[in-house]
Structure prediction request, 72 residues.
Amino acid sequence: MKQKYLLLIIITLLYQQVFAQSNTVLQRIFLVGDAGALTKEKHPVCDWLKANVNWNDSSNVLIYLGDNIYPF
Prediction:
């Protein structure tokens, strides 16, 4: 009986190692419905994205869903 449990534990551990997901981000997509109008000469959505997203990382992508894109 102990051998069966030991075998089950070993199979479970091997399964986790073989099929474990990696912690690597393949693609991070930011969807913006509408950037909105200027508020005190600022775009809150665009300013947040500039400050909090590393745009030098090629896995980051920005997609505008709205039909209006306001100038910076």
In short: The mean pLDDT is 78. The first strand starts at residue 28 and ends at 32.
